[in-house]
Design goal:
The complex is a heterodimer. Chain A is mostly helical. Helix content of chain A is 70%, strand content 0%. Chain A is built from 13 helices and no strands. Chain A is elongated and about 70 Å long. In chain A, 61% of the residues are buried. By secondary structure, chain B is mainly α. In chain B, 89% of the residues lie in helices and 0% in strands. Classes of the chains: A mainly alpha, B mainly alpha. Chain B: Keywords: Membrane, Transmembrane, Transmembrane helix. Chain B: The chain crosses the membrane at residues 16-36, 57-79. Chain B: This is Secreted protein.
């Protein structure tokens, strides 16, 4: 292990930290509507999601041999400094959007970070913009729309088919179904996103000569990536869960099942077809469609607009931050230390700001735009369990 | 350098996603409907109620088995 230099160690730690933010940022994707409809109690939901994310990490290492899927030129080997700068931009953007309660794509943040850092480190030719367009931009625009349409149609159909039945009984059935659809999304998320971290660590180890070229991730890398994403998931990005579960629309069990089924289907179909898309955007699109397909179609358009703006901003914003970080990191060891300190400081201050208005398992369902009569379920608050996400990131 | 965008593949992905979602949710909803019918039938008891209950239960089982199949297929895609 004498190959592991200071920078490589820093990259591995930062990659695990990114994986952690990825986990708590994306808990909402699978679990927001399940929590909102009362299909699962908040604490139970995040525990299930965490276990499935961890299990998902072990299911496949197929895409762990590439970081970017061809977006940046990896042939020459990505410099650890570029990867470090990319991770810094992705983590900071993830934390900022979490603070604002906005679901944004962790994958896009990572891709944006890689693009920004590569442009600075290797020049504009290091980025395959055609691949960016065909593999990221177009699927990013299309997938939430498809998920939204499918969820809208499915919601309409679910209400039509179960009309005239006792709502209590049918809701019970739809809630049960949600457990399966939500679990499927969690598992797919663990498989997809944990592999990105595995890929980053593995390729960094390869570039440092600690692993031979083309090596599959060692078990400790798989377990580490799985554990980081699971821990993050368990912390629960409650702010985002609140936005997605109750902030966009008043989601009832048939709508929850429809949106989750649409999201799971779009994610699985697309990855089978080779499109890497954003779980976050697909799930949000599904929730919007289901909200509009409900009995009294209502959608918080202001919130929807903010989400869409954030999606558009994610890639360029992460790219700019990472590009700046790459400039500093290039200056040598003091640059790495400076950027590392900036990351810790930035994460810490965002965590402190979040403490002013903590959102946790006890109050996650409290704010609903539409007066909900029966579906709001508030668990006993217990000791305040604020997600200590950012602080742990710093420590990680 | 230029990558042509495969619109057909994109449209196919979208179409399949849409159709599968609608189908799965429809089948699941029929299952829920059957369960509701069964519950209603059991509540009103009577001789006819029991038979109607059995038929509904069978329908519900078929529907939920089909949905379970879809979930299992999804699992195989994840692990694939």
């Amino acid at each position: 292990m004498e190959h592991i230099t200071f920078l490589v160690a820093v990259v591995i730690i930062t990659a695990l930290a990114f994986d952690f933010t990825n986990g708590f940022h994306d808990t909402a994707n699978a679990m927001a509507t399940s929590i909102a409809t009362g299909a699962l109690k908040p604490k139970v939901a995040v525990a299930i999601a965490a276990v499935l994310n961890f299990a998902g990490a072990f299911l496949s290492v197929k895409v762990a041999t590439t970081i970017s899927g061809g977006i940046v030129n990896e042939k020459a080997g990505l410099q650890p400094s570029i990867i470090f700068a990319a991770l810094v931009g992705a983590i900071l953007w993830n934390l900022l959007t979490w603070l604002k309660g906005l679901p944004s794509s962790s994958s896009h943040a990572l891709y944006g970070g890689l693009i920004g850092a590569t442009v600075v480190g290797a020049g504009i030719n290091g980025v395959n913009f055609a691949t960016v367009l065909s593999k990221i931009v177009i699927p990013a625009v299309a997938s939430p729309i498809v998920a939204g349409l499918a969820a809208w149609g499915a919601t309409k159909l679910a209400y039509l088919l179960t009309r005239g039945t006792d709502e209590k009984t049918s809701d019970k059935g739809f809630r049960k179904g949600q457990m399966f659809s939500a679990s499927l999304i969690s598992l797919a998320h663990g498989t997809n996103d944990a592999q990105k971290t595995m890929g980053i660590i593995t390729l960094t180890l390869v570039s440092a000569g600690a692993l031979h070229k083309g090596a599959t991730p060692p078990v400790w890398v798989i377990a580490g990536a799985g554990a980081a994403i699971a821990l993050g998931t368990y912390m629960g990005g409650w702010r985002i869960i609140r936005s997605m579960g109750s902030g966009l629309a008043d989601i009832r069990p048939p709508q929850g099942l429809s949106s989750e089924s649409a999201a799971a289907t779009v994610i699985l179909t697309s990855s089978a077809m080779g499109y890497g898309l954003s779980t976050t955007q697909v799930c949000s699109g599904g929730i919007m469609g289901a909200g509009l397909g409900g009995r009294n179609p209502r959608l918080n358009w202001a919130m929807a607009r903010r989400m869409v703006y954030t999606w558009g901003l994610t890639l360029p914003a992460a790219a700019v931050v990472s590009g700046l970080a790459a400039v500093v990191v290039d200056q040598g060891t003091w640059g790495i230390v400076l950027i590392g300190a900036a990351l810790v400081l930035g994460s810490g201050s965002m965590y402190l700001i979040s403490r002013r208005q903590p959102v946790h398992a006890g109050n996650v369902n409290d704010v609903t735009p539409v007066t909900a009569t029966e579906t709001v379920e508030v668990t006993p608050a217990g000791p305040v369990t604020t997600p200590t996400a950012a602080s742990t990131t710093v420590a990680a | 350098m230029s990558v042509s965008i495969k619109w057909a593949a994109l449209a196919q992905t979208a179409g399949v996603s849409f159709a599968v979602t609608i189908a799965v949710v429809a089948v699941f909803s029929v299952g829920v409907l059957a369960l509701c019918r069964r519950e209603a039938a059991l509540e009103t008891a009577g001789t006819g109620g029991a038979t109607a209950g059995k038929g509904s239960l069978a329908l519900a089982s078929v529907c939920f088995t089909a949905c379970a199949g879809a979930v299992l297929y999804g699992l195989s895609l994840i692990a694939g």
